[in-house]
Structures are given as structure tokens and as C-alpha cells.
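Question (not urgent): is this output format expected?
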Amino acid sequence: MELKKLSINDKEAIKELFTGVFTGEPWNDDWSDGEQLDLYIEDLCGQDYSLTFGLYDGGELIGISMGDIKHWFRGTEYLINELCIKTDRQGTGAGTFFLTEIEKAVKEMGIKQIFLLTGRDVPAYNFYKKNGYVEESNTVPLSKYIGG
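Got this back:
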């Protein structure tokens, strides 16, 4: 397996893997609005501060990590907005390998911390905990829906 940096030029492959994972269990996200999906992928991969990685196995894209580089008083951070492994490759060690390679790559870039959000009720929560990620005790996600 091999880690590669991706860009907005890889959008079609990213969209295919992303929707293949997140439209299924346990997420069941509705990404049927192609325009909204394009905008979302462009938000995550097409900005100057975006940092996207792909995990390839034999030329096949099996994992993606899409996030932002953020400069913070404690040092530069990589904020992972989306990370997934192809559904049929989950549970094989590919995800742990991917995280390890991402950690090495961002450390070489001078990044001091990786930050991400996940739900406690999805398998990703235990995956991240198993890989050494800890809950921030004083960080609380807040939201307010203001749509129609």
C-alpha cells in the first residue's frame, strides 16, 4: 500500500470512494445532489490550505483523508474533515496503516497535531481510540440549524 497526496484534480476518484462509503451503513448520507457533492469535495480538496491524502493498493484508491492545515498557537495542525477506507477493505488493517502513514507525512511537514471529529455511535470512534486518538475534554462541538 502507498500513501499519495491528492488534489482537486483527483475529484472524480475521491467522489466515487467517498459516496461508496458514506451512502452505506452506518452513515446512510444522501449524496444524490451531484452539485452539492461537487461543492463539498471542492471545499475539502480545492483550497490553498487543503491537505488530501489517498491510500492506494495496486493502483486502486482504497482510502481518502480530506482536511485543512491550520496554524495555531501550539503549532500547525491537520484538521481531518473526512477519512474513509473502502468498505470491503475495512477491518483489514488498511485504516491503521493509512493513519500511521498520514501521521508520518504530516510530521515531516512540521505539523504538530491531528484533530478530527467523529460520532461516539459509529465504528470510527473505536477505530480512532484504538489508534491512540483521545477525546478533547474541553472541546465541545456546537451547531445551530438555521435552514428552512
